[in-house]
Design goal:
Blueprint (H helix, E strand, L loop, with lengths): L1 H17 L9 H34 L18 E15 L14 E14 L4 E10 L4 E14 L2 E9 L22 H4 L6 E11 L2 E9 L27 E12 L2 E11 L5 E2 L2 E2 L3 E13 L2 E12 L2 H8 L10 E11 L2 H4 L7 E16 L11 E14 L2 E12 L5 E11 L1
Antiparallel strand pairs: 1-2, 1-18, 2-3, 3-4, 4-5, 5-6, 6-7, 7-8, 8-9, 9-12, 10-11, 12-13, 13-14, 14-15, 15-16, 16-17, 17-18
Length: 428
């Protein structure tokens, strides 16, 4: 981009000397040459405009430092404070005509789901503060999503300490609404990777193109919050006066071997007992979460995929301590995946609307929070769930999204239950 701008600037200077027209007395060859230069200048001007628009699109879509584009804003500052944010609003309509579904009779709802402010401060080239303040459900819930100090110890390498986003999956770190299709975050990344999952800890983040690595030591999960239907979601401590009897280690690596292809994997290992004990002694309740993910971007097409496997130890002892019986057991193994495809059709419909997008998409996911349970307990077929989501995301600006989608949810125990969503999202 810099080379193109430099060449364009040189030609523009030359054009200034030419006076923007054909000199008096110029020969036919001179006239042809000058007309060619003027045509080249027009082409370059269009290319520069295109580069400017692509830069804005990068702001809205491309992750940096393992965070979303708005959350990364402090990294672009030379000194001082930065302010950024995002928000989303979601309307949900339930299909009440399907009497076989558990949600039959559920009331439609609309929610000012999130209003977020990122506040950062760059003390020097080597030290910065980054934080996310979250107001949920119209301000009924207020929390700190993350807040950490980062010390840059080498080019591309930083040590972070504080409340950190756990670097697993696709959405947990990069969850700003214009960066993903659909009004809701995928369920696999809500129950198996309990998005948004944050934890107090310390670690390092390295960006060594084309690879990126993050390794953190964080507060462990709390097994008392695990459940048959909610998976690991209730086990998050979110940094709030968190028990630190046991800790977890999480590591993630991503690589972009060619432009447009990203492959990565992450693993979390940690005991979740947090001091729980029975007649046999302390319950370690080790939790292992492994995930693999990938993304392909080619022109207007995007394909994403994620697979997650959870192994949970000491489930029989946990069930006894939590008085869980029958088919209410915590899953000894949990598993799930999703794959989605999206394509921006705006260049086909309106080639000149380069800062707009119209993105139809489809997503299929399947997960089971009771893929295996201990001997003596039963599997509840309702915990094996699948969802097909189809919809469209319209971006009148790269940082603003208007979304609509239809979800058809099924379990091994029931037929489909439909939901229709409308969503608004933005980032700045």
């Amino acid at each position: 981009m810099r080379n193109t701008v430099a060449v364009a600037a040189g030609l523009l200077v030359g054009a200034a000397f030419l006076g923007g027209g054909t000199p008096v007395g110029a020969g036919e060859e001179d006239t042809d040459r000058i007309e060619k230069i003027e045509r080249d200048l027009e082409t370059l001007a269009e290319e520069i405009a295109s580069l400017r628009i692509e830069k804005v699109e990068d702001l809205a879509d491309a992750p940096a430092t393992g965070l979303g584009p708005a959350a990364s804003k402090i990294y672009t500052k030379d000194r001082g404070m930065s302010l950024a944010g995002y928000g989303e609003f979601v309307y949900t309509h339930f299909d009440r005509e399907d009497e076989s579904g558990k949600e039959a009779g559920a009331k439609d709802r609309i929610d000012a789901l999130r209003t977020i402010l990122y506040v950062g401060y760059k003390f020097s080239d080597a030290i910065l503060l980054n934080s996310e303040l979250e107001f949920e459900h119209g301000g009924a819930e207020v929390s700190t999503e993350f807040a950490y100090l980062e010390f840059r110890v080498a080019p591309g390498l930083g040590v972070r300490g504080g409340l950190l986003l756990v670097p697993l999956g696709i959405v947990n770190e990069i969850h700003e609404p214009p960066t993903f299709v659909g009004a809701e975050r995928p369920e696999v990344e809500r129950f198996l990777i309990p998005t948004t999952w944050r934890a107090n800890g310390v670690g390092f983040s390295g960006n060594f193109e084309p690879a990126a690595v993050r390794v953190y030591l964080v507060e462990g999960l709390r097994a008392e919050g695990f459940s048959a239907s909610g998976g690991l979601r209730g086990g998050r401590q979110n940094g709030k006066d968190a028990l630190a009897e046991t800790w977890g280690l999480v590591a993630r690596g991503d690589v972009e071997p060619v432009v447009g292809l990203t492959l990565g994997s992450g693993i979390y290992v940690g005991n979740s007992g947090q001091g729980l004990a029975d007649s046999l002694g302390v319950v370690s309740a080790r939790t292992v979460i492994w995930e693999a993910h990938g993304e392909i971007r080619y022109r207007g097409a995007v394909m994403r995929g994620l697979a997650v496997l959870v192994d949970q130890d000491d489930v029989g002892r946990l069930n006894a301590l939590l008085e869980l019986k029958g088919d209410a057991s915590i899953g000894e193994r949990m598993a799930g995946f999703y794959i989605e495809a999206a394509y921006d059709v705006m260049p086909l419909l309106a080639p000149g609307a380069r800062d707009m997008a119209l993105i139809p998409f489809v997503r299929y996911l399947r997960y089971n929070t009771q893929d295996e349970v201990p001997a003596g307990f039963m599997i509840d077929p309702a915990q094996e769930r699948s969802t097909v989501t189809a919809g469209v995301s319209f971006k009148p600006h790269p940082q603003v999204a208007v979304k609509a989608d239809l979800q058809i949810r099924t379990t091994e125990a029931e037929s489909g239950v439909n939901r229709f969503h409308l969503g608004l999202g933005y980032l700045f």
